[in-house]
Amino acid sequence: MASKTDTSGQVLYQFANTKSKRAFFFKHWPLYVISIPGLIYFVIFKYIPLFGSAIAFQNFNIFKGISGSPWVGFVHFQRMFAYDEFLIILKNTLLIAAYDLIFAFPVPIILALLLNEVRISIYKRIVQTVIYMPHFLSWIIVGGMIVSLLSPTNGAINHVLAFFHIDSIYFLGENSFIRTILIGSGIWKDSGWGTIIYLAAIAGINPDLYEAADIDGAGRLRQTISITLPSILPVITILFLLHIGRFMDFGFERVFVFLNPLNSENGEILDTYVYRAGLVDRQYSYTTAIGIFKSFVGLILIVSGNMLSKKMTGDGLY
């Protein structure tokens, strides 16, 4: 017979003997069956390709394959850190990822808190729909829209500047604007979608807490600070840790659509560099070494962030 315990949000089952464990399995067999396609997906598309990482330690020849290509140890990793262009691109990646974490991550939280205060239902639904919609557009469409908007000849932004007698600016031709454009476009596209999870978390808060606070004379701002934010803090922590895990993985399409030779000094990141050096210049081993470096940094960040979170808040990913 199985006994159920709930420890730190994890449900644990303890079995008296093998027979009870087998009976528990047969009782819940549909759950195990429906998990099989997901497991197969991860094995085929996530774990088997990991063996291809071996080419980072070879001078990979596409005709000889992994078994026939010569092994060279850590030569490509040494080359990576010795290459001045790589260090500039690494700096761009870290800066853009940090700006995204600082400026973009809090926006869905703020939007969810503001939407939670809207009392006119129809207006709230219209606003939700309007801010969700950009998420369903591809980066190609978003890139085209923003390029048109920022056009130096007929873009809306430059028409506004001309109204105030300010000279036209070629935003995508200036290194100083590219990081702002990348972060701003990401906020516009995905912030509304990110509010879904926070609104769901807010909907799960016990209404009695708000009624009790109302009786005690707490206003909406005080209720938000003292009830809403602490209640959704575990969700914020989990999503923050997931964001930290993708710190170096800013997204290829998101940058590539805005990149050109005039802004690549501040705009090129590891993902676009891997495309250029790996697929265009066919440096497969070198770019695989860069990919392993990215994954290693992401692993360190998510493990460190999870340990820190568990010590500070008691919540973590695992």
Structural class, judged by helices and strands?
A: mainly alpha
Provide the β-strand percentage band.
under 5%
Tell me about the biggest sheet?
2 strands, antiparallel
Q: How many DSSP E strands? A: 2
In angstroms, what is the radius of gyration?
25 Å
Report the span from N to C terminus: 27 Å
Unreliable parts: none
Strand order of the largest sheet: 1-2
Number of helices: 16
Using the alpha-carbon principal axes, give the shape. Answer: flat
H and E order: EEHHHHHHHHHHHHHHHH
Could you report the average pLDDT, rounded to the nearest whole number?
A: 87
The portion of residues assigned to helices is 55-70%
Task: Summarize the structure in words.
The protein is mainly α and about 325 residues long. It has 16 helices and 2 strands. Strand 1 and strand 2 form a beta hairpin. Helix 7 packs across helix 10 and helix 15 (about 270-280) runs antiparallel to helix 16. The longest helix is centred in the middle third of the chain and has 29 residues, at about 175-205. The relative contact order is 0.11.
